[in-house]
Amino acid sequence: MDSRPAAILATDVGSTTTKAIFIEKENGEYRLKARGEMPTTVEAPFEDVMIGVRNSMRRLEEAIDRPLLDVSGHLIRPAAQDKGVDMYVSTSSAGGGLQMMVAGLVKNISATSANRAALGAGAVVLDVIAVDDGRSQSEQITRITELRPDIILVSGGVDGGSVSYLALIAEIIKQANPQPRFGSTYKLPLIYAGNRDARDLVVEICGDQMDVHITENLRPRHDVENLGPARNAIHDLFMNHVMAQAPGYAELLKWVDTGIMPTPSAVGQMIRLIADHYNTTVIGVDIGGATTDVFSCFDGTFTRTVSANLGMSYSICNVLEEAGYENIARWIPFGIDSATMSDWIANKMVRPTTIPQTVYQLVLEQAVAREALRLSFEHHKSLAKRVGHEKVSVFGNEPSGLEEPSGRDVVDMMRLGMLVGSGGVLSHAPRRQQAALMLLDSFQPEGLTELAVDSIFMMPHLGVLSTVYPDIAAEVFDRDCLVRLGTCIAPVGPAKPGSIMATVELTLPGNVRAQKQLIAGEIEVLPLDAGKEARCKVVPKGRSINVGAGGGRPIEAVVKGGIVGIILDGRGRPIELPKEPSQRVTTLSRWLTSVDAYPRHKLEELQAEFPVRPVRGGGTKTYGGLFRRR
Fold this sequence. Notes:
With about 625 residues, this protein is α/β, with parallel strands linked by helices.
């Protein structure tokens, strides 16, 4: 008999809302039955996370007409006679999620490895302290004192190397005496993952004030990065120590059948499962109101990064500051000046829960999203490195045994198999074509890449479930979570606009054959429904054009359809728009219309109302809103 649970409840205790889902086995298949959410109650005046958890479950009960809690508010287990559940799992990012500080000897080596370990474990890294970070010891002590992390991770030095600078880092942390966010009676956890010869020294210096945990060295040798043990130690401390101090989590820990996972860690777990389940390389992105998380899994190398100031509501002004007006405006197919754009973005930050009410507002929001995604991905690529051979470096006159990294890039867009988007601006775009274009314009995949979005932000729930039942998580993900948009075919190489970059030959279901020319500078969609597959052969025109098999070489593959279809993207990499604004608007409008991203008549109305007009002295000026009428 199948011993797997028939009724599964999962919650994600977020910083603002607690989201509950109910999964049930029916006719031999696991399917999502319903979803319910209510405000999270970890902060004042409630200060009890279980209030929000129970409220979300009550909302779920109404949706599925099934009792989950008894009269005393306890979970009914096991399931019997159409009530209760067999299993309950949960993730959490309440109170800001898992917040850590990391420290190492060299900023570009041990501190970077510690940063990757913390990010991979689902943490928000508050700061990175290193001997060579440019700050004085008093500045470092002040900074550490200001922070209130949940855990501190210390690394540095190869095994058998010098220990003097590790003692210095430990002394700095001891003098700072950082205090935990939750709980006033327990010691702040410190994980030491550096040179094994310094373990006793670190315990001696910090052991009285902090709860020191020893794990394997992150960088035991110059050419080896060992992140797994540190990540496991972070998970264990988060579940069994940190969360136990947060208001209400002690009871939640008794309810769950497995440990509570940080929400980003659960999403990362799901990205790894996708890569394994589909035997492909994956990039995933979760764009939120305050932060954007990017995940990648290439050849077993998993990387997660957090762009803490790039989001679509609370930190939307930071997107404007980092990207600049010109970079955002290039994605807007009508005239707009910098003042109008700034006003709209500022209003979005002040009213973070508002959603676009008009096509004008929708286009602006999605233009900002493109730049938030692009900047976050650039940040991700800068940290997604494999450790390589390195050159010796020293502190002063004392050999440290440390070296400069020569990390090799992990992310290879030509080898990317699947690009998965999540977050409100992607998952809830009014037209799926809009989500596909946002992913294409920001990540710019090359060759053949499948595009998809998370329908209702269910990846955290399925990620924690996958630690116990990966087969169930994969089944529900494929059937109810993943919305397949289609496959993008994007040749790379120099080509004159309007010329033929490649010929695409498709063998569609029913042995129907079709042939299409992929034109440089254009984007086009061929219909192929979700759940359908087609045999595809792409033949480049010229030796300089590459579609994944090398310059000038044809490639054959099975491509998957989706709500959008097969996207022939001949816009080149990187995508370049005309500098002259009126030409840019014309080109952008042609692309948007070709994929049916917005109603054509709405774009024409916006272009008539907000035109691009020339100004005296040459050049052009864009007008929008009140500025247009002046």
